[in-house]
Amino acid sequence: EAAPQPPARPERMSPAITAEHELLACVLHRPALLQVEGGAAPPDAHSGSDDPLAADPAQGPFESSAIAELIGMVRDALALGRLTGADVVRYLFTRCADRPDLRHWIATASQRGESIADPAAFFAAVQRGRQRHLGMRNARTLRQQLQQALSSGDRQTADRLTLQLVEHLRQERPRPATS
User: Fold this and answer.
1) d(CA 24, CA 85)
2) Structure confidence by residue, pLDDT tens digits, 101-122
3) Which of 29, 92, 140, 173 could bridge to 113 as Cys pair (CB 3.0-4.6 Å)?
4) Among candidates 28, 132, 151, 45, which has minimal Cα distance to 89?
Protein backbone atom coordinates (compact mmCIF):
# COMPACT_ATOMS: atom_id res chain seq x y z
CA GLU A 1 0.00 0.00 0.00
CA ALA A 2 1.14 3.52 -0.75
CA ALA A 3 1.73 5.83 2.18
CA PRO A 4 -1.00 8.43 2.59
CA GLN A 5 -0.13 11.73 0.99
CA PRO A 6 -0.22 14.85 3.16
CA PRO A 7 -3.14 17.13 2.46
CA ALA A 8 -2.09 19.76 0.00
CA ARG A 9 -2.02 23.31 1.21
CA PRO A 10 -4.74 25.24 -0.59
CA GLU A 11 -3.60 26.98 -3.76
CA ARG A 12 -4.96 30.24 -2.40
CA MET A 13 -4.94 30.75 1.32
CA SER A 14 -7.10 33.41 2.87
CA PRO A 15 -5.26 36.58 3.89
CA ALA A 16 -5.75 35.64 7.55
CA ILE A 17 -4.17 32.20 7.10
CA THR A 18 -1.36 33.72 5.04
CA ALA A 19 -0.65 36.14 7.90
CA GLU A 20 -0.74 33.29 10.41
CA HIS A 21 1.70 31.32 8.25
CA GLU A 22 4.00 34.37 8.17
CA LEU A 23 3.83 34.61 11.98
CA LEU A 24 4.77 30.95 12.25
CA ALA A 25 7.66 31.53 9.83
CA CYS A 26 8.97 34.38 11.98
CA VAL A 27 8.62 32.33 15.15
CA LEU A 28 10.41 29.32 13.65
CA HIS A 29 13.24 31.58 12.53
CA ARG A 30 13.41 33.42 15.88
CA PRO A 31 11.53 31.52 18.61
CA ALA A 32 12.26 34.21 21.20
CA LEU A 33 9.48 36.27 19.57
CA LEU A 34 7.03 34.12 21.55
CA GLN A 35 8.78 34.55 24.87
CA VAL A 36 6.85 37.02 26.93
CA GLU A 37 8.77 38.17 29.98
CA GLY A 38 6.90 39.65 32.90
CA GLY A 39 3.67 39.78 30.93
CA ALA A 40 5.08 42.20 28.37
CA ALA A 41 5.01 41.47 24.67
CA PRO A 42 8.18 41.60 22.58
CA PRO A 43 9.21 45.11 21.48
CA ASP A 44 7.10 46.58 18.67
CA ALA A 45 4.76 43.60 18.78
CA HIS A 46 1.68 45.69 19.46
CA SER A 47 0.32 49.18 19.35
CA GLY A 48 -0.67 49.41 23.01
CA SER A 49 -4.41 48.82 22.57
CA ASP A 50 -6.52 46.62 24.84
CA ASP A 51 -6.88 44.10 22.04
CA PRO A 52 -6.45 40.46 23.11
CA LEU A 53 -3.79 40.06 20.43
CA ALA A 54 -1.72 42.78 22.01
CA ALA A 55 -1.27 41.00 25.34
CA ASP A 56 0.37 38.04 23.66
CA PRO A 57 1.32 38.69 20.05
CA ALA A 58 0.94 35.16 18.74
CA GLN A 59 -2.19 34.37 20.68
CA GLY A 60 -5.33 33.62 18.70
CA PRO A 61 -7.78 33.81 17.38
CA PHE A 62 -6.35 31.76 14.56
CA GLU A 63 -8.30 30.87 11.46
CA SER A 64 -6.03 27.86 10.91
CA SER A 65 -6.30 25.29 13.68
CA ALA A 66 -3.05 23.71 12.43
CA ILE A 67 -1.10 26.91 12.96
CA ALA A 68 -2.71 27.47 16.36
CA GLU A 69 -1.64 23.96 17.34
CA LEU A 70 1.90 24.53 16.06
CA ILE A 71 2.24 27.84 17.94
CA GLY A 72 1.26 25.94 21.09
CA MET A 73 3.92 23.33 20.34
CA VAL A 74 6.53 26.05 19.84
CA ARG A 75 5.64 27.35 23.31
CA ASP A 76 6.14 23.80 24.62
CA ALA A 77 9.55 23.63 22.92
CA LEU A 78 10.58 26.93 24.51
CA ALA A 79 9.43 25.69 27.91
CA LEU A 80 11.65 22.62 27.42
CA GLY A 81 14.68 24.80 26.70
CA ARG A 82 14.75 24.57 22.91
CA LEU A 83 15.62 28.18 22.19
CA THR A 84 17.09 28.20 18.67
CA GLY A 85 15.08 28.00 15.49
CA ALA A 86 16.79 24.77 14.44
CA ASP A 87 16.08 23.14 17.82
CA VAL A 88 12.43 24.17 17.67
CA VAL A 89 12.01 22.89 14.11
CA ARG A 90 13.60 19.55 15.04
CA TYR A 91 11.32 19.32 18.08
CA LEU A 92 8.25 20.04 15.97
CA PHE A 93 9.17 17.50 13.29
CA THR A 94 9.75 14.87 15.97
CA ARG A 95 6.54 15.68 17.79
CA CYS A 96 4.55 15.69 14.53
CA ALA A 97 6.04 12.46 13.15
CA ASP A 98 2.56 11.02 12.63
CA ARG A 99 0.97 14.29 11.41
CA PRO A 100 1.92 14.94 7.76
CA ASP A 101 -0.50 17.87 7.64
CA LEU A 102 1.41 19.68 10.41
CA ARG A 103 4.80 18.63 9.02
CA HIS A 104 3.87 20.37 5.77
CA TRP A 105 3.11 23.63 7.61
CA ILE A 106 6.39 23.34 9.55
CA ALA A 107 8.42 22.76 6.39
CA THR A 108 6.90 25.64 4.43
CA ALA A 109 7.04 28.07 7.37
CA SER A 110 10.63 27.11 8.15
CA GLN A 111 11.63 27.65 4.54
CA ARG A 112 9.79 30.99 4.45
CA GLY A 113 11.40 32.08 7.73
CA GLU A 114 14.87 31.75 6.24
CA SER A 115 14.04 34.45 3.68
CA ILE A 116 12.82 37.01 6.23
CA ALA A 117 15.60 39.52 6.85
CA ASP A 118 14.29 40.96 10.14
CA PRO A 119 11.86 38.52 11.76
CA ALA A 120 11.06 40.83 14.71
CA ALA A 121 10.05 43.77 12.51
CA PHE A 122 8.16 41.52 10.10
CA PHE A 123 6.42 39.77 13.03
CA ALA A 124 5.32 43.14 14.44
CA ALA A 125 4.04 44.32 11.05
CA VAL A 126 2.05 41.13 10.46
CA GLN A 127 0.65 41.30 13.97
CA ARG A 128 -0.50 44.90 13.46
CA GLY A 129 -2.24 43.78 10.27
CA ARG A 130 -3.95 40.95 12.15
CA GLN A 131 -5.09 43.40 14.82
CA ARG A 132 -6.55 45.74 12.19
CA HIS A 133 -8.32 42.84 10.49
CA LEU A 134 -9.78 41.59 13.78
CA GLY A 135 -10.82 45.13 14.73
CA MET A 136 -12.62 45.65 11.42
CA ARG A 137 -14.36 42.29 11.78
CA ASN A 138 -15.49 43.15 15.32
CA ALA A 139 -16.75 46.57 14.20
CA ARG A 140 -18.67 44.96 11.34
CA THR A 141 -20.31 42.51 13.77
CA LEU A 142 -21.29 45.33 16.13
CA ARG A 143 -22.77 47.32 13.21
CA GLN A 144 -24.82 44.33 12.10
CA GLN A 145 -26.11 43.76 15.64
CA LEU A 146 -26.93 47.47 15.91
CA GLN A 147 -28.88 47.38 12.64
CA GLN A 148 -30.83 44.34 13.84
CA ALA A 149 -31.65 46.04 17.15
CA LEU A 150 -32.78 49.20 15.37
CA SER A 151 -34.91 47.31 12.87
CA SER A 152 -36.59 45.33 15.65
CA GLY A 153 -37.22 48.48 17.68
CA ASP A 154 -35.08 47.39 20.63
CA ARG A 155 -33.92 50.83 21.71
CA GLN A 156 -32.12 49.68 24.88
CA THR A 157 -29.97 47.16 22.99
CA ALA A 158 -29.37 49.69 20.20
CA ASP A 159 -28.12 52.25 22.74
CA ARG A 160 -25.80 49.71 24.35
CA LEU A 161 -24.45 48.57 20.98
CA THR A 162 -23.94 52.18 19.85
CA LEU A 163 -21.82 52.84 22.92
CA GLN A 164 -19.84 49.64 22.33
CA LEU A 165 -19.27 50.52 18.68
CA VAL A 166 -18.16 54.07 19.48
CA GLU A 167 -15.75 52.82 22.16
CA HIS A 168 -14.43 50.13 19.83
CA LEU A 169 -13.82 52.65 17.04
CA ARG A 170 -12.21 55.06 19.51
CA GLN A 171 -9.72 52.34 20.51
CA GLU A 172 -9.10 51.21 16.94
CA ARG A 173 -8.70 54.65 15.41
CA PRO A 174 -7.63 57.18 18.04
CA ARG A 175 -7.72 60.80 16.99
CA PRO A 176 -4.36 62.51 16.62
CA ALA A 177 -3.49 64.87 19.44
CA THR A 178 -4.26 68.49 18.65
CA SER A 179 -2.11 71.32 19.84
Assistant:
1) 11
2) 999 999 999 999 999 999 999 9
3) 29
4) 28
